[in-house]
Amino acid sequence: MIKAGLVGCGSLGRTHTKALAKLGDARMAAFCDINEDAAKALCETVDGEYATTDFDRLLVDESLDAIYVCTLHDSHADLCIRSAEAGKHVLVEKPLALTVEDCLAIGAAVKRAGIKLMPAFKMRYYELILKAREIIPEPLMITMQMMDNRWADDMWANQPEQGGGNIMSQGCHSCDILRFMARCDPLAVTAVGGNYYQPIATADNLCAVFEFERGIAGSLVQGDASCPPLLGKFYMQVFAENVSVTLHNRFCTMNVAEKGKDVEVLEGTETGFLEENRAFIDALANDADLPMDYVDGLLGTLMPIQAIASALDHETKPIKSLLSDLD
Fold first, then answer.
1. For the whole model, what pTM was predicted?
2. Phi, psi (degrees; rounded to nearest 5) at 64
3. Strand pairing category for 234-240 and 141-147
4. Which domains occur in the chain, in start order?
5. pLDDT-derived band of residue 327, with 50, 70 and 90 as boundaries?
């Protein structure tokens, strides 16, 4: 039985707790939140061992194998680094952190401690995303769009210091899926966009072009101007010679166009939370490699960070070369 502790007992913390309860060979045993009532309430739903407002209690609990970090984005770096230093494995919700420096500091801490850290990029487990990779294993170009309805000015995830805004908060999912489909790493990004209407000066919408290894081109449209009625919030196209796939309807519908064949329409469902937890727990139980590790978290977060930087100063920004600081 793998035992985990949770810091952050909000919506995502509850989701991961329920997922572990379904697995059978893992459980969320300890619950930490600045709101003690929230921690106690979630603890009671799964007959947990204790609830606390003191994160250090989780770190010194030798019975805990892992820490789930599901807090506000600006706290991720500190909590991940402290968990690594305490020898705890980590599953951290996206984004990994809000700055290049914090992302690299987490990576350095993970390497020093030798623990496993898995970013929660659940969209890699969408069944039609996996089917698209199967159909086009070697893409030439990929387009990704994630356009939401306008975020509220006072929404915590929209605050630059706490959440980083839409491009950071949700763009890391978009960027990770671009990299997942490309099957190689991003070298650089050039973007146009920035702050169009948010009163707190967060970059709210942008278009970016990523140069991947092997010459693969990837484009990203990300923001909160409006959710398109025909395509839906998530929209992706993947192109190779004589074949393309189009995913829409929150990636639950896919059209496959291949030369000489009729267009095929496939339907799927949104999956991910249970599957990512299963993968994390299996890796801990078997001391195996994670399907996603801290490098995936680093690159998936550095991509939107550098895209925003490029949009602001109109210069191409490096991505993969930043990881040389970890060597």
1. 0.94
2. -90, 130
3. antiparallel
4. 2-122+274-293 (3.40.50.720), 123-269+303-322 (3.30.360.10)
5. low
